[in-house]
Amino acid sequence: MKVHFEPYLVLAGLTHRSALIAWGGFYFKVSRTDGEWKLVDDSDLTTVHPPRSASIGARSHPYGQAHVEVYDESGRLAGTGDTRTANHVFVSGLEPERVYTYRVVVDGREWAAGPRRDWVPGTRQGLAESGRSYVNRFRTHPRPDAPADLTFAALGDFGTGVRRPSTPKRRQRDVAAALEQAVDREDVRLLLTTGDNIYAGRTLLGVPLGATGDEDDDWFFTYFQPYRYIVNRIPVYPCIGNHDGNETEVNDDRDQIMDNFFLSERLQGEESAGRASIGPGLFYRFRYGSDVELIALDTSRRFLLFGERFFRHVNHQPFLEAAFPAGGGAGAARWRVVFSHHPPYCAGPHYGNSRSSIEHLVPLFRRSGVALVLSGHEHNYQHSLADGVHYFVTGGGGKVREGRPDHTAEAHTVGWAARAHFLLVHLSGTRAHVVPIGEDGRLLEVRGPDGTIVEAVTTIDALSDAPVTSGRAVTPSK
């Protein structure tokens, strides 16, 4: 056996003045006889790189003395960061709405330079020379007091893995490729997840077995490889799904989610400022310019058969009151966007409406002027409109649940599609455009409650409760 180490880069966080840049990688054993590739489990890392026990994320042991350089578009050095105690560093002193490039040097060698190897499934699975190299370019966020347009993507229920070829019901690799194209084409600035960021690798009679998501190696096929050339350029903002915790699976992956998304580092000081609430559960909010506020809610619960959902916990009531003030509050953003896992309104075919969310969260959305709510959980696309609030289910990032929703009246359903997909959301002035994109990169064919084809692009006017169906701002590939 020989050992191959494949390095990865991550733009783990971004503001209008700083960038959190991280690096890590994964080890593979390669058979000298038949060329078979085997990902090294975290528990076996000490055999290939003692005393290592983690290979990526905020808690991973440092790979060496690291120096990070950030350059502006003219090639001028705009900021640096150094560390010997971690595999991530904040680079500050950047300017708002500026394009930058970066490089990471560890022990005198540039990290992940040159053509990379990427996973190719099939009869001869393994890492193959893809001819692709990292393009480490990002644009800082606008100033918090400046109006700015925003295009972002939303992806849910995606962590099924790309180790094997796609099937009709498992399309993560295809959706990831389409998402990467959209990031390039539409100037996507950030990615929201609607939960179920990772699933157990195997199940027996519905019981998860191994690789549930609590170790770094579980995340290679489910996150770092499929979104490799996205997460080095735009930040990802996750929320928690039932498969990410103890609610559905036997192991709670929350610690690993905090680690691999660098959430403790990104949210440091946010709890004291009232913009986050952590433990138990994950709640946070952030501004993008002056017009947009994005709010992550934790709708999961600690156990499947008992216990209230985390948004009912007393610890989080001050956060919810501050995030959803009556009338919008002083200095309210024009667009208040909520993302969470369990949808308040869902037409099926497997799940229905969430009575708890409708009872406790929907009144908060209404009173504070929320116009857009994004969720996952059901593995299809749905759009509901209730009391002027637009609710979207985007749970087809990896798994697909075929079948027609059968509770459209109760869920106030406007449109649905049983396809793998992600959402593009464009916010500009007083209008928002929500565009569902399929795994082939094309606009989804969306059907109404009666099965007839309806307009796929939803355009929302912030000044009116009525939906608008003209003026497409984001154009998918044809």
Structure characteristics:
478 residues; mainly beta; Immunoglobulin-like; Purple Acid Phosphatase, chain A, domain 2; 2 domains; eight-stranded mixed beta sheet; 30 strands; 32% strand; disordered C terminus
Would you mind describing this structure in some detail?
By secondary structure, this protein is mostly beta strands. The protein folds into two domains: 2-137, Immunoglobulin-like, CATH 2.60.40; 143-468, Metallo-dependent phosphatases (Purple Acid Phosphatase, chain A, domain 2), CATH 3.60.21.10. It contains nine helices and 30 strands. The strands form seven sheets. Strands 17-18-19-20-21-23-22-24 form an eight-stranded mixed β-sheet. A seven-stranded mixed β-sheet has the order 16-13-12-25-26-29-30, with helices on one face. The radius of gyration is 22 Å and the shape is globular.
